[in-house]
Amino acid sequence: MYVILTVRIYSDNLIKKMSKTAAHRLSSDELLEIFSLSENATAVYTTDEIIIQAASKAMISYWGKDQSIIGKPLEEAVPELKNQEFIGLLKNVWNTGISYEAKDTPALLRVNDKLQEFYYDFKYRAIKDSSGEMYCILHTANDVTERVKRDQFERGLIGKLEASEKRLSTILRSIPIPLCIMQGPEFIIEFANEPMISLFQRYPEDVIGEPILKVFPELAEQTINEDWQEVLNTGRNIHYEEDPVYIYSSTGEKRSLYLTYHYHPLLDTNGIVDAVLATVIDVTEQVKSRMSIERAEEMLRHAVNSVELGTWHMDAVTRKFIPSQRLKEIFGYQPDEEMTFDDALKQVTDEYREKVAEAVEVAIQKGENYDLEYPIIGLHDKRIHWIRAAGKLYASEEGMPSHFSGTVLDITERKLDELRKNDFIGMVSHELKTPLTSLKAYTQMLLARGKKNNDDFNISALSKIERQVNKMSAMINGFLNVSRLESGKIYLEKQNFNLDELVSEIIEETMLFTSSHTITFAPCAPIPVYADRDKIGHVISNLLSNAIKYSPKRRDIEVKCELIDNCAQVSVKDEGMGIKPQFIDRLFEPYFRVESHHTQHISGFGIGLYISAEIIKRHGGKIWVNSESGKGSTFFFSLPVS
Ligand code: ADP
User: Fold this and answer.
1) Burial zone of 280 (CB within 10 Å; 0-12 exposed, 13-18 middle, 19+ buried)
2) Ligand 1 atom nearest 605 alpha carbon
3) Which ligand 1 atom is the nearest neighbour of the CA of 547?
4) Fewer beta carbons under 10 A from the terminal one: N or C of the chain?
């Protein structure tokens, strides 16, 4: 800089001398010679053709030329300037006498045979003689290429920096996980993305730029800030899973949350940790639902234990069987004794074993519910234990094979009671049958005699006795059937017959005793079945008498016999009181009756449908009902056709 200044002062003085006393002291050539030695880039032009009168070495080297250009018009000496502004500017200076200067100006110059861009600070000074006429133009220039390029580079760098900062902030903003940056020892929230703001449940302007403990002082009560401090002090990451945290909403309500969070140190330009990047995931819902599942499981475990339920789990594919301790106990195993499914099956009594194995198979293959009562023989005590086993196939969850599992309850006591009760009912019913038969015979004899004597009173009284005796014997037969059913002593005597004919017969029989209702039966094509005619007759008669019993007088009863899906289907439709949905599943249980003020005066023991269902099931058929309370019911059964 010093050199440039001195040269400039020197050249200014020189020019002054040139204009006044040059001729006396130094010749123009001498001056130009000195000039050319200047280390400063300087040139002198004359005329409006911009003839180069002199050029310092530095200027010549800027142009990438040699001494031979002296005396030539600039345009010719440095032809690449032709299309640039400089020649025009110089001509303007010459013509107007007004100096011109500019900084950081780019110029294209051919140096070393290569057109290159340089930058200059330059000045075209109009030098005039004492009369004010243009004398020459003094051109001084400074190559500032390096500085300009450095500036450009820095500007570029800053631009890039700004762009990447912008990009970073876009990325931070677009991350769907709540995230914030807490700056310095006060943990000022410098940045918080949208999900974090909504987790805070605050307006951005209320949190951004604020110390977090000012917004949520309750975090300090929970010493959470100590973790951030630790990140600042140690530069280590901190990670917590499902941490219980409470914060207050802006209206002061306490919000209890479970958060999984990660604190990450951020460094300043000196490599010192000055901020904490926190990512937080709100896992409250997951934790709460898991907790409620755990609670439910706990309750279930309690329930299972308190009723002494045995449980098992069986892999549907590998058939690996895992019994609970209680299940092993029910089957008579010691806790450390191994128990397999085949072992368990062997303990089932002979008459039930096949049925149990088949039911398990059907449950696993078809996913049907498994619910059976059967006797087993205790492993060591060899005594009969009755159990109720119920199970279900659970479809596979992701990564888990489907499994068949369920519960086993020891029902020996109840079962033995039931069996005793059945035996008793069976015995009593059987004993009642003999006197009832003779009662019936004598009644019929007396009735015949009354008819012969035209004794109207006796005829009417004896007819009533006969009807009551018939009712009683039907009832007793019912009990006898139940007891036979329960002890497995009911046998089917199958034969080929037409179901539609049987339906007509039973309707006719029923109508003999009933005048209160109209029974319609649409004619149909013969439907042959192979079944126990008496027992199926019993089922039809039972459905008909229920339809009569449970619907008001003079209402229609519609009976149909159809062939549907290759099954013989009978339906009995009434317009009676109907059945509430909650009772429908229980209708076919033994001794079940709907208790209501409508039914309390209707006699019955709740065994008709149970017996009917057992008969149909034993035929491989189905029985069911559609009903709407207050509107009526339709009972159906279907049998395979022969
Ligand atoms: P019972 O008629 O002797 O009580 P059932 O086994 O035949 O025994 O019927 C069981 C119960 O089902 C009845 O007590 C009654 O509540 C209900 N039920 C049967 N059939 C009908 C029907 N057609 N309409 C309304 N309820 C019926």
Assistant:
1) buried
2) 3
3) 23
4) N
Task: Report the nearest-CA residue for atom 16 of ligand 1.
Answer: 594
For 380-434, write each residue's pLDDT tens digit: 999 999 999 999 888 776 656 688 889 999 999 988 888 888 888 888 888 888 8
Instruction: Compute the average pLDDT of residues 247-260.
Output: 93
Kindly state if the Cβ of 577 falls inside 6 Å of ligand 1. Answer: yes
CA of 597 to the centre of ligand 1 (A): 14
Q: What is the pLDDT of residue 317?
A: 84
Residue having the nearest C-alpha atom to atom 11 of ligand 1: 593
Which residues have C-beta within 8 Å of that of residue 538, sequence separation ≥ 6?
A: 611, 612, 615
CA-to-CA dists, residue 167 to 146, 158, 171, 173, 204, angstroms: 31, 14, 6, 10, 20
Find out whether the beta carbon of 450 lies less than 6 Å from any atom of ligand 1.
no
Q: Is the CB of 499 under 6 A from ligand 1?
A: no
Decide the pairing of beta strands 528-531 and 495-498.
Answer: antiparallel
Is the Cβ atom of 587 under 6 angstroms away from ligand 1?
Answer: yes
Give the residue among 414, 538, 537, 536 at the shortest CA–CA distance from 474: 538
Confirm or reject: Cβ of 479 under 6 Å from ligand 1: no
Query: Across residues 587-604, what is the average pLDDT?
Result: 85
Closest ligand 1 atom to 594 CA = 16
Q: Residue 620 region, left (φ>0) first, then alpha (ψ -120 to 50), else beta?
A: left
CA dist., res. 468 & res. 350, Å (int) = 43
Q: Global pTM? A: 0.46
Atom of ligand 1 nearest to the CA of 577: 25
d(CA 148, CA 305): 87
DSSP annotation of 98 reads: -
Q: Between helices 28-37 and 2-25, what is the axis angle to 10°?
A: 170
Helix or strand or coil: residue 218?
Answer: helix
The b/e string for 439-455 (b: 16+ C-beta within 10 A; e otherwise) is: bbeebeebbeebeeeee
358-368 tens-digit pLDDT: 999 988 888 88
What atom of ligand 1 comes closest to residue 610's alpha carbon? 6
Q: How far is the CA of 545 from the centre of ligand 1 (A)?
A: 9
